[in-house]
Amino acid sequence: MSVVLASRKGAIARSRVKQCVAWCFTLLGFAVALAVAIVAPSPAKAATTPYDLVFGLVGSGNGLYAFMLVVLMVCYSLTPIIALVSGRKGAGLERYLARYPFRIAVGLALCLWNVLGDVFEILPRPFFPGPAQIAGAFLEDSAFILHNTLYSLRLFAVGFIVGVFFGVSTGIIIGWFAKAYYWVFPVLKITGVIPAVAWMPFALTSFPTPFAAAAFLIVICEWFPIAFLTAQGVRSTPKQLYEAARTLGAGQRTLVFRVAVPHALPNIFTGISTANAYAFATLVMSEMMGQPGGLGYYINSSKVWSAYYKVFAAIVVMAILFSLILKITERVQRHALRWQRGLIQ
Amino acid sequence: MTQRTSHRIETATDVETDVETATEKKVCVSLRSVAFSYSSIDAQPTTVLEDFNLDVHQGDFVTLIGPSGCGKTTLLRLIAGLEQPLVGDVVFQGQHVDGPNHKRGVVFQQGSLFPWLTVSGNVAFGLKSRGVAPSERTSQVAEILDLVGMSAFAQSYPHEISGGMAQRVAIARTLVNDPDLVLLDEPMGALDSFMRQSLQSLILQLHQRLGMTMILVTHDIDEAVFMSDRIVVMTSRPGRIIESLPVTLPERRMQRDRSSAKFFEIRSSIMTLLSDISA
Ligand SMILES: Nc1ncnc2c1ncn2[C@@H]1O[C@H](COP(=O)(O)OP(=O)(O)OP(=O)(O)O)[C@@H](O)[C@H]1O
Ligand SMILES: [Mg+2]
């Protein structure tokens, strides 16, 4: 009995040690990068605008870069610290531990980039700045970048909400009414393959503001794939489910909204994620062509001054912003389709 | 729980026999010279039913048996209101049937549960479509799930439960609507024999306890004799009734002895009828 207990204790202790090692390895790459950034600071501009008060403690692009590394290390320490404190070993921790090789690689890659781009400036300039210079862009232009990010976000939000609404509702109408399907579906099929930006000249002339024009293009992006897939989902609802519902006393509305729409829901989400990819491309492209703001606009106006480090800064913001949007949609989808878990792999 | 149930069943049967002796039973559903054929685009329409007449009395348990393709499912669909007869009339409680209604419940062979709803969501579906208040709904769903022994799985999704359990849920989903007539189209067709027997007893229990009319389609002669008040034997092309046979066994239905001589006699007479058809 006590032997078993002792060996179990031993196993627990060993797994503790393994966890700590994995944690250290996770942080190792970033720690190296941080050390390099501190020991060999790159010559970057100091803060100049009042908005830099926020970043007062980091001062320079190199400082902000180092600060960001520290933030990353703290974030990556949360999972193991919580696990150690609570003493529970969840699936989250397992996944965390499995990822440390990748995170070492990320840290070392950042470090290498920093050395080549910022410290020795070996990479062709000004096209390939290092991470510290890119961080510098956030200090120089913090307010302007924030403004443009919000502009992009607003544009996307308007286009997304309107597009999903119209996409789902036309999809339901086309899927439900055979007449509507006959007349509208072929049109949808043809217009659906046209890249939305092709409508840009038309949009710019027929909408009162550039914002409305770009929003219209995003609506187009969302509308067609979602309508297409929703219609398919509604039409592929098994007859038996309708019949079961009717013998349970369901009326027309119930058949549409509580049988056809739930059946089409997986399709609707596929439509949304397909459409989002188009929408991101369209968003940036239309911002680069005649918008008074937005990340695409910021890229364009930075390019004119050959400020490529600012272009990269905008790219970083896009990567974070769009990943975040995808992550949120995925979460919503996972929750809405939880009934499928285990049904489809 | 079991004791209480069995007690209730006895009282229900007593009442039923009292009524039976006092007055002639009312007709629940009747088909009057019904003809039906499926129209198809490429082939000429095949006549499924022709000059079909059938009366089913209130509270009866009637079984339809016959060769594959003779129109049993079609018959149930006509009664349910999912199809309209070409000629003739389907009358339910004195009224012409012109569409589905929750008072005529259907239990399909399999796969008719809504995969996106939990077990209790599926059972609540009918109540919700008819606008029953949420609190009322919850208590009725809980009660019926308890009756079919599925309370423990109320929050499971259909793909997480077995075929037999799914049929219990399908039955509960129909019964929660308090139907006057329940149509069962081979509800046990896809189950193994052990599951079959437990579901047979469950259906009989529910029939006696709740006292509605039931029409069952099956391929299993044993099942037909074990469960029914009356067995209707059909033939195909076009579907007609060749025999309507009351099951007169001494025991009360729940206790029917599948190995008794009388049981065997009825069983073999149906067997003969069916083999004559296929000959
Ligand atoms: N939707 C349909 N369209 C055309 N013909 C059909 C359709 N459904 C059934 N039939 C035909 O109608 C006839 C009767 O079918 P039905 O399903 O009622 O038979 P059944 O007695 O239930 O058979 P089984 O015992 O195999 O279930 C069959 O010959 C079949 O081919
Ligand atoms: Mg059938």
Automatic annotation (TrEMBL), chain A:
<keyword id="KW-1003">Cell membrane</keyword>
<feature type="transmembrane region" description="Helical">
    <location>
        <begin position="181"/>
        <end position="199"/>
    </location>
</feature>
<feature type="domain" description="ABC transmembrane type-1">
    <location>
        <begin position="149"/>
        <end position="330"/>
    </location>
</feature>
<protein>
    <submittedName>
        <fullName>ABC transporter permease</fullName>
    </submittedName>
</protein>
<keyword id="KW-0813">Transport</keyword>
<keyword id="KW-1133">Transmembrane helix</keyword>
<dbReference type="InterPro" id="IPR000515">
    <property type="entry name" value="MetI-like"/>
</dbReference>
<keyword id="KW-0812">Transmembrane</keyword>
<feature type="transmembrane region" description="Helical">
    <location>
        <begin position="151"/>
        <end position="174"/>
    </location>
</feature>
<feature type="transmembrane region" description="Helical">
    <location>
        <begin position="97"/>
        <end position="116"/>
    </location>
</feature>
<dbReference type="Pfam" id="PF00528">
    <property type="entry name" value="BPD_transp_1"/>
</dbReference>
<dbReference type="GO" id="GO:0005886">
    <property type="term" value="C:plasma membrane"/>
</dbReference>
<feature type="transmembrane region" description="Helical">
    <location>
        <begin position="62"/>
        <end position="85"/>
    </location>
</feature>
<comment type="similarity">
    <text>Belongs to the binding-protein-dependent transport system permease family.</text>
</comment>
<feature type="transmembrane region" description="Helical">
    <location>
        <begin position="211"/>
        <end position="234"/>
    </location>
</feature>
<dbReference type="InterPro" id="IPR035906">
    <property type="entry name" value="MetI-like_sf"/>
</dbReference>
<feature type="transmembrane region" description="Helical">
    <location>
        <begin position="307"/>
        <end position="326"/>
    </location>
</feature>
<dbReference type="GO" id="GO:0055085">
    <property type="term" value="P:transmembrane transport"/>
</dbReference>
<keyword id="KW-0472">Membrane</keyword>
<feature type="transmembrane region" description="Helical">
    <location>
        <begin position="255"/>
        <end position="281"/>
    </location>
</feature>
UniProtKB/TrEMBL annotation, chain B:
<dbReference type="GO" id="GO:0016887">
    <property type="term" value="F:ATP hydrolysis activity"/>
</dbReference>
<dbReference type="InterPro" id="IPR003439">
    <property type="entry name" value="ABC_transporter-like_ATP-bd"/>
</dbReference>
<keyword id="KW-0547">Nucleotide-binding</keyword>
<dbReference type="InterPro" id="IPR027417">
    <property type="entry name" value="P-loop_NTPase"/>
</dbReference>
<keyword id="KW-0067">ATP-binding</keyword>
<dbReference type="GO" id="GO:0005524">
    <property type="term" value="F:ATP binding"/>
</dbReference>
<dbReference type="InterPro" id="IPR003593">
    <property type="entry name" value="AAA+_ATPase"/>
</dbReference>
<dbReference type="Pfam" id="PF00005">
    <property type="entry name" value="ABC_tran"/>
</dbReference>
<protein>
    <submittedName>
        <fullName>Taurine-transporting AtPase</fullName>
    </submittedName>
</protein>
<dbReference type="InterPro" id="IPR017871">
    <property type="entry name" value="ABC_transporter-like_CS"/>
</dbReference>
<feature type="domain" description="ABC transporter">
    <location>
        <begin position="29"/>
        <end position="261"/>
    </location>
</feature>
<keyword id="KW-0813">Transport</keyword>
<dbReference type="InterPro" id="IPR050166">
    <property type="entry name" value="ABC_transporter_ATP-bind"/>
</dbReference>
